[in-house]
Amino acid sequence: MKAALKTADGRFEIAEVERPIIPTGDFVLARVRVAGICGTDLRHWNKAEPELECHIVGHELAGEVVEVGEDVTDLKPGDRVVIETVMGDDVCEYCRIQRYNICEHLYDVRTKYVSRAYGEFVCGPQRKFYKLPGHVSFEEAALIDTFSVCLHAHHRAEVGVNHKIAIIGAGPIGLGQLQLAKMSGADVLIIDRVRSSLDLARDLGADMIVDSAQGDVISRVMDFTGGRGADVSFECAGGLSMPETLPLATKLVRRGGKVVVVGGFDGGEIAIPLEWQRIQMSEIEIVMSASFAYRDIYPEQGMVLDLLAKGKLDAKSLITHRFDLDHINEAFETADGKEETGAVFVAITIS
C-alpha cells in the first residue's frame, strides 16, 4: 500500500509499504478515505525525531471496511466507519475500568495498529470502528477524534448552565470546546491571535472573541465575567505556547474555579512558573485532560458521533483546506502557517 513515512528531518516521503493483515478473528481491515492534521501532529512536524523515522503516523481518520475477521459480527465490507485510535493494552487495571486513555502502554499499542492514518489501510479490533450514518461525510468524521478530546475535557470540567467559560486557542480543539460549552448553556469567551479563527468562533456562537495581540486579555475576561473571573478556563493551544498560555489560564479563572489543560505538552521536564500561592489560596483546580475514553457506560467517541449525526456539532465549518496524500508536506505547511493561510482543520484524502 501507499503511505507517508516520517523522514529523518520530520517531514514525509511517500513510499510503498506492506499492507496490514488481520491478526485475530475480532480485527477489521479498513481503507482510509480521509485523515486529518491535529496539533499533536504539528508538534512533531519538521522536527528530527529518530524514534518516528520511517513510521506511519496520524490519528484522525475515517474510511471503509474492506475485510473482517471471522469473529466480527456487526461490521461487513463496504461499511463506512470512523476509527477510534485511543487503544490501550486491554490487560492493565486502567483498561479494565475503561480508562484506557491513561494506559501505560497506550502509545505502543495504538501506533502498532489504529494510529496510522497516513497510509491507505489500517487494521484494528472491531470495537474501535463505528458505523457512519449516510449523511455524515468522511471529512466530517475525521473530526470526531478532535471533538472526542473536547468532550472528555468538557466532562472533566463539568461545564454547566450559565457558566462563564474562557477558552485559550481557537484551533479545532478550542472551537470544539466552544460548541460543547454553548450546547450546555454556558457563556463563552475565546482568545486567539488569528483573525480568521476568531471570526469562525463568532460564527459558531462565541459570546465574545478576544485578539490576544491587541489589548489586555485579562481585563476583557474580567469585564465578561463581572469582575469575578471565568468559572472554567480551557487551555487549548498547547505546545510551544504553553509557558505563556498556562499561566494566563490560571489568571483568567475565578477563585474556586477550574483550569482544564487540553493542549498538549512536549516530552520531558518543562519548567513553567505559576503563582502557586495565589492558586492555592484561591483553591483553583488545575485539571489535566488526556485524549478520551468512556463517560460512565458510554464511549465518548460514540457520543460525539451521535451529536454530529444529529446536527448538534458543526464539523463542516472547521474544514478549511484539502490535499491528497501525495501533497502531505504541503498540507502540513498549510496547517502550520495558519496565520497566513487561515487554516483550521486540514483534511487529507488518502484513497
Polypeptide structure, described:
- The chain is an alpha/beta fold.
- It folds into two domains: 177 residues, Quinone Oxidoreductase, Chain A, domain 1 (Alpha-Beta Complex); 137 residues, 3-Layer(aba) Sandwich (Rossmann fold), CATH 3.40.50.
- Helices cover 29% and strands 25% of the residues.
- The chain is built from 13 helices and 17 strands.
- Strands 3, 4, 5, 6, 7, 16 and 17 form a seven-stranded mixed sheet that branches. A six-stranded parallel sheet has the order 10-9-8-11-12-13, sandwiched between helices.
- The longest helix has 14 residues.
- The N and C termini lie close together (10 Å).
Characterize this entry briefly.
The protein is an alpha/beta fold.
How would the blueprint of this fold be written?
Layout: E1 2-6, E2 12-16, E3 27-36, H1 39-43, E4 61-68, E5 80-83, H2 93-96, H3 106-112, E6 121-125, E7 129-131, H4 138-141, H5 144-157, E8 164-168, H6 172-183, E9 187-192, H7 195-203, E10 208-211, H8 217-224, E11 230-235, H9 242-252, E12 253-261, H10 276-281, E13 285-288, E14 294-295, E15 298-299, H11 300-309, E16 319-324, H12 328-336, H13 338-341, E17 345-349
Parallel strand pairs: 8-9, 8-11, 9-10, 11-12, 12-13, 16-17
Antiparallel strand pairs: 1-2, 3-4, 3-6, 3-17, 4-5, 5-7, 14-15
